[in-house]
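User: Please run a holo structure prediction.
Assistant: Happy to. Please share the sequence and the ligand.
User: Here you go; the ligand is pyridoxal-5'-phosphate.
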Amino acid sequence: FGSMATNKLNRSNSEALYEKAKNYFPGGVNSPVRAFKSVEGSPLFIKKGDGAIIWDEDDNEFIDFCGSWGPLILGHNHPKVYAGIVAALQNGASFGAPTRLENELAELILSRNPFIDKIRFTSSGTEAVMSAIRLARGYTGRNKIVKFEGCYHGHSDSLLVKAGSGLVTFGNTSSAGVPEAFANETLVLPLNDSEALKSCFEQFGKEIACVIIEPIPANNGLLLQELSFLKELREICTQNGALLFFDEVISGFRVAFSGAAEYYGIAPDLVTYGKIIGGGLPVGAYGAKKEIMACVAPDGPVYQAGTLSGNPVAMAAGLAQLTELSKPSFYEDQERRTKLFTDKINSHAKAKGYVFELVTIGSIFWISFDNSKHIHAAEEINPDMTNFKHLHRALLEEGLYMGPSGYEVGFISAVHTDELLLKAAQLFINALDR
Ligand code: PLP
């Protein structure tokens, strides 16, 4: 795919900035995937975004399907979000004291979300998950947690753990600097595997504080789980007194207002949010029913805090964004437009006999070079990502910006109109046909 390059991009300004950045930051970046290591070329430095369009420092223009990795469900520079941020900022950037805006955002979320009674705002998804894991342990008085291979939950120690060999395994650390003792408390299972799940609970049932899953796994390909598996998770957690923890940092406010829990109709005990909840500013959150949240400080013994937690400018951005999402048929329309885009590309690929598919749910899509069912980790399906590398460059040259990793998903925003998506689908097809 995309082997014959045309419209070669001028990257000279981005390249110069990247050379400088390498003197300042490890790998020239402040988050590893941005370094373009798994695709061709060097990172594009983005200058500006408006609606569904972004411009880089060489004034190349792209239709953006990364959306800052998910938060920008209303696109860049949305007038309501912009106005909310400016209004809050005029009163000051931060107080480290309660503000009315925290109440308003919490009220909007809790009034529409049947799964949680209380919420705590943090400054990132990682922080939300890390804190919620501590809460699960504090609430249950147990230490072990279960996670699934192919799910990403941020970079806290307990979760930078990958599967060992065998069906039910103690994890191995997937980063230097994580003590083995931490990894030993994390059990890693294959996704959608009911036998492995049962066997794990038979061995460790009474030691497990929680089972954490991305209910829509979207960090290692888009690995849609069978509904029966998610239901089984719910049951086995209940039977064993373990908490079911849905990490909805991507799926929350993305597939439905109350995330995958609402989409699938399954009630988790603990939920985390991030990305969309902050309207493009740094916000994460965790929530649960009253009796669980009663364990959190200052009400209870599980400590968690943050200088900038509930920051008023970030709360205003989240409030403005979530207000738009709570309007009728927002999610139906997102899904309809996403299908317009993916169906056009998929039909073309099928007619040409390409081993290629855009896998989709809600307004999320993933580029797959495999036509079988996608349930297990993407590394198994597509170990070297050569096809993705070539296609990624061709897509950039056609004017479509996708995140620089074949394991990550793409996102469609409310300002990707029918017209723009049909145009983008044609550009995508051009890239595929090269
Ligand atoms: N959980 C999930 C499911 C995520 O996708 C991510 C980030 O992509 C995180 C947690 C971590 O969030 P953050 O990058 O805001 O720390």
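The longest strand covers residues 208-213.
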